[in-house]
């Protein structure tokens, strides 16, 4: 299945573009599912069909789904309380009734990720269009599987799980219950689920599309989003310039939009969607929007390691970071990881295996690309004589 992730700043019209893209694909005969994580039914308003926790038909070959984070969170909490009953009773903790539970921060994101994974694995559809949250939240959402898996590996490392057989003995010696098997099983299940989401995001059949309204605010949003996505090894396959006004509209507005469009064309494949003069509502309005089709491009960007050992005695790691500013870059090597900061954005990146046996010799930012030089550590590097 091909997956298309669509995001943009708040008010850019990303949900409308997602709905129009899904509708166009469905009308071309592609079995399409459009997925949204919004609390309000903005997707249903655009499609003219109410959406909710259960997938609904929004037309021939088109299904819409807006999963319920509240129900998912309640189910997870109920299951946790049942499995942790012994520990909760030992602590004298009162259990929560399902009716008094409201989702904690992050529950909506996890619900959307689960739905994305389940939909991507389904054989009922050929195309999955995901209406992501506004860009800032979408970036955090895309980072969540990698970050949570990293936390799980630190908190529940494999070598600790290997000592499961000792827990009953330790429990008798200590006089208190030790963590039970389900804790490790839960951690392993979460790791598997998050790995499945990561696989969808990294799949060559997955593309990310950015929506922006041309103008000063839209230009600022695109610059920030481009850098943040690049830090995660992603690049929009298309930049959708939404609500482009006709030439006969006020000259000041037309000039602002033209300036933003010229800037975007230097870095992106820009597709213009005209302003209809009103907010699109319903299938006929969506069909009137000339949204770009779903092509075979990908949004993942390679971070190659160049072998310069013979010439300069170093390996060079190339990280494309368009829009990065030298003064805002920060690098810290910590064990087998690199802590990379670019302005307000940060990512902890595992080093490629060859670079783990090297020391950092320096870094330079050239033409929108960060190049980090690594020299082999003689104590760890194979004898090259």
Describe the structure.
By secondary structure, this protein is α/β, with parallel strands linked by helices. It folds into two domains: 2-69 and 103-287, P-loop containing nucleotide triphosphate hydrolases (Rossmann fold); 305-376, Immunoglobulin-like (Sandwich). The chain has 13 helices and 15 strands. The chain has helices at 14-27, 42-47, 69-83, 85-91, 107-121, 135-155, 158-161, 167-174, 181-202, 216-231, 251-265, 283-287, 309-312; strands at residues 2-8, 32-36, 56-59, 62-65, 127-131, 206-212, 238-244, 270-274, 305-308, 314-320, 329-334, 337-342, 345-350, 358-366, 369-376. The strands form three sheets. Strands 3-4-2-5-1-6-7-8 form an eight-stranded mixed β-sheet, sandwiched between helices. It has a four-stranded antiparallel β-sheet with strand order 9-10-15-14. Strands 11-12-13 form a three-stranded antiparallel β-sheet, covered by helices on one side. Helix 5 (107-121) crosses helix 9. The radius of gyration is 24 Å and the shape is globular. The two termini are 49 Å apart.
């Amino acid at each position: 299945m091909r997956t298309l992730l669509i995001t943009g700043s708040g008010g850019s019209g990303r949900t409308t573009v997602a709905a129009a893209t899904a509708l166009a694909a469905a009308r071309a005969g592609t079995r399409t599912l459009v997925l949204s994580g919004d609390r309000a039914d903005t997707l249903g308003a655009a499609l003219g069909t109410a959406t909710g926790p259960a997938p609904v038909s929004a037309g021939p070959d088109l299904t819409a789904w807006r999963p319920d984070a509240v129900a998912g969170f309640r189910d997870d909490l109920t299951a946790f309380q049942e499995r942790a009953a012994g520990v909760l009773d030992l602590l004298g903790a009162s259990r929560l009734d399902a009716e008094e539970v409201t989702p904690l921060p992050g529950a909506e994101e996890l619900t959307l990720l689960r739905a994305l994974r389940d939909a991507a694995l389904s054989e009922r559809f050929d195309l999955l269009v995901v209406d992501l949250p506004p860009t800032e939240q979408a970036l955090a959402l895309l980072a969540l599987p990698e970050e949570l898996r990293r936390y799980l590996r630190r908190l529940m490392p494999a070598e600790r799980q290997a000592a499961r057989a000792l827990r009953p003995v330790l429990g008798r010696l200590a006089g208190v219950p030790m963590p039970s098997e389900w804790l490790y099983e839960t951690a392993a299940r979460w790791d598997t689920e998050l790995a499945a989401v990561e696989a969808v995001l990294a799949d060559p059949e997955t593309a990310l599309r950015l929506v922006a309204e041309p103008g000063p605010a839209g230009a600022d949003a695109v610059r920030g989003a481009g850098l943040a996505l690049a830090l995660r090894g992603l690049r929009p396959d298309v930049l959708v310039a939404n609500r482009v006004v006709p030439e006969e509209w006020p000259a000041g507005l037309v000039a602002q939009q033209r300036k933003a469009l010229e800037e975007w064309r230097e870095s992106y494949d820009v597709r213009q969607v005209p302003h209809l003069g009103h907010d699109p509502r319903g299938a006929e309005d969506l069909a009137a929007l000339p949204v770009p089709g779903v092509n075979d491009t990908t949004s993942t960007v390679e971070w190659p390691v160049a072998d310069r050992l013979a010439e300069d005695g170093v390996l060079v790691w190339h990280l494309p970071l368009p829009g990065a500013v030298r003064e805002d870059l920060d690098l810290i090597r910590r064990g087998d990881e690199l802590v990379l900061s670019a302005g307000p954005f940060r990512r902890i990146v595992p080093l490629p295996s060859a670079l783990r046996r090297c020391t950092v010799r320096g870094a330079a930012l050239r033409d929108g690309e960060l190049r980090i030089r690594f020299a082999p550590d003689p104590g760890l590097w194979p004898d090259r004589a």
